[in-house]
Every structure is written in C-alpha cells, then in structure tokens.
Amino acid sequence: MKHPWPSSARRIVLAAGFFSVATLVTTLLAKPGTAPVPAAAAAPLNGGAEYVGEAVCIACHAPQNKQFTHTQHANVFRLNPKNEKEKVSCEACHGPGSNHLKDPISPSNHSALVGFTKGWGTPVAQQTAMCLQCHEGGERMFWAGSTHATNDLSCSDCHNPMAKISATGLLKKPSINETCYTCHQQQRADFAKRSHMPVAEGKLSCVDCHNPHGATSKTLLKADSVNELCYNCHTEKRGPFLWEHAPVRDNCLTCHNAHGSNHDKLLQVARPMLCQQCHTNAGGHQSNLYNAGQLIGAGGGVSSRVLGRSCQNCHSQIHGSNHPAGARFQR
C-alpha cells in the first residue's frame, strides 16, 4: 500500500521527532536551576583603544618607518591591502594605538600596544595570535603543540618583519641556517665535522628536512618518519628488497648521524665497530676481527676486514639486496 504522505514530508516529520527527543534528553540530564553558560567575550585589544592611522605612527617612529619601507609587509599593507585590517598598516600587527598616544614612553603603559620584543611584556600567545591573523594554515597548521610553541617561542624569535635582513622570509638573520643556529648550536657543530650534510655549502637548508612552524613529529620532520624523509633524496635505499637489513628498515639514524659525523658516510661509529655493536656472535668472524696476526706492525698479515670499508668490503649491499644469493648482503 502506498503511503499517503510524500517521502519529503516523512523525512521532515522524522527529523522533527528526533530533535524533540534529543531536546527532552538534554533537559532531563541538565541539573535543576542551572542555565547555559555563555561563551566568554574576547577582551578588547589594547584596552579598547581606537585606530589612529599609520601617519600618526610615522610621526614619531621615523627610523622604524625607514626600515619597514623595504619589507614585503610594507608593500602589501600600503600598495595592495586585501582587507580593512591590512589597510591600517602598523596597527594591523601592534593593535589600535590611541592609548599608546596618551603616555608613549612610560613602562607601565606597555599594555597599550602589542610589542614583539622580550622586554615589552606582551604575552607570547598574544604575539603569535597577531601573526596568525594572516599567516594561519598552510605550513603553520601544526604550530599549536609543536616543539617551538611548547618552548614558548614567538614568531619574532626567528622573524623580523620590520626590516629586510634576509632575502626571503623576513628572518632575523641573513639566512635560514643562521637563524636556526641561534638556538641549535650542536647542529651547527655537526655541520662542521668531516662528513656532513651539504648545509654549509649552501646545497641544503634546515627547512629542506624540517618544518620550523610545526609538524606531526617531535623533531618537526617534513615526513611521517626519518626513513621517509631520507628516501626523498636517497631513493635507491627505499626498496623493497628481497633481503632486507633490519636496522636499515627500522631507522636510518641507527647507523647514521643526520647532521654530521667525523666518521665516513655520517656514521655514528667507525666501521667495523659499528657493525660489531649488533654482530658479536661467538660462532662467526665478527667477534674475532683483531688479533696479533691481523694488525699493521704486529708482525703478521693484514686482514681485509679492518681496512677500507671494513665489513662492506664483502657485504657491499648493506642497505638491502635483490640478488637471489644476497642473503648476507654480499651482492
């Protein structure tokens, strides 16, 4: 038998019924005598100040204006603003400035403007929020909860939007690497070691591997894992291989130092000691490499296992082999 109501009407009735039941359940679960708590309104910026315009700012801040004129922000704000906020130029970042005019030099009046220096006193969260008004999303989508954010860094710790010091990015130093070296001194030392990633030569920069604005990994990698990141350049190590070397499949950093090492090929430890960290079984040759007859100057012959590429003199395909007879990574 055909239903007398059209299908669209039946759907409306069912939806209304479900809504009524949900409302009833919510009412019954609520505590008697309580009312919904409204969301807290955001505090007015800079104490409820009003915008005064860029010309008023420039009247006092001529040196800052001279530096700012050459930046990308100045070109956008003054020549091609996308919205009303960008049209106010200085106050787009520092907030409305009418309260700042009342007492511009008093330290107690620092809350009248959003400042981007350590001594100004503006909370880091508020500084970052001002930048994210325009720069939210994209590479910044994982900023909240990232290593840099949880260590209370602000955008101005790496960037200087008031002067064109770097070619791109409005950085506080002339290059990306120099900016990162401000905090990461150990990595700077690694890049100066005998075997290192070609960062000092300008062939790579820190952001080729890391996203300083946030990532899903603790070390801000631009991939889901260390291996996936390394495979971007070292595709021949990706596999799949018929014979896989377990530590290679697990993590490249088991054997290599990602930034630099004084051992060949960025190795954590020189060969054959690196291999012997795992291969020390008494039944094989791995645990008996050195003896009186195998060392130079000891009156005997020299073992090929302690010279040149050491273990890899024989086990040349140490990252994995596709040869049917490559179970020991010898071919």
First-last Cα distance = 76 Å
Describe the strand arrangement of the main beta sheet, using strand numbers.
Answer: 1-3
Structural class by secondary-structure content: mainly alpha
Mean pLDDT over the residues: 84
Poorly predicted regions are: 37-41
How many DSSP H or I helices?
14
Q: What is the rounded Rg?
A: 31 Å
* Backbone shape: elongated
> Level of helix content?
25-40%
Order of helices and strands: HHHHHHHHHHHEHEHEHE
The tally of strands reads 4
Quaternary class: single chain
Strand count, sense and barrel status of the largest sheet are:
2 strands, antiparallel
Strand content: under 5%
Could you outline the blueprint of secondary structure elements for this entry?
Layout: H1 7-29, H2 54-60, H3 62-68, H4 72-79, H5 84-87, H6 90-94, H7 98-102, H8 124-135, H9 147-150, H10 176-181, H11 185-191, E1 195-196, H12 226-231, E2 243-244, H13 246-250, E3 260-261, H14 273-276, E4 320-321
Antiparallel strand pairs: 1-3, 2-4
Question: Could you explain how this protein is built, in words?
Answer:
By secondary structure, this protein is mainly α. Among the domains are: 53-113, no CATH class; 243-321, no CATH class. Helices cover 31% and strands 2% of the residues. It contains 14 helices and four strands. It has a two-stranded antiparallel sheet with strand order 1-3. Strands 2-4 form a two-stranded antiparallel ribbon. The longest helix has 23 residues, at 7-29. The radius of gyration is 31 Å and the shape is elongated. It starts with 6 loop residues before the first helix and ends in a 10-residue tail after the last strand. The model is unreliable at 37-41 (pLDDT under 50).
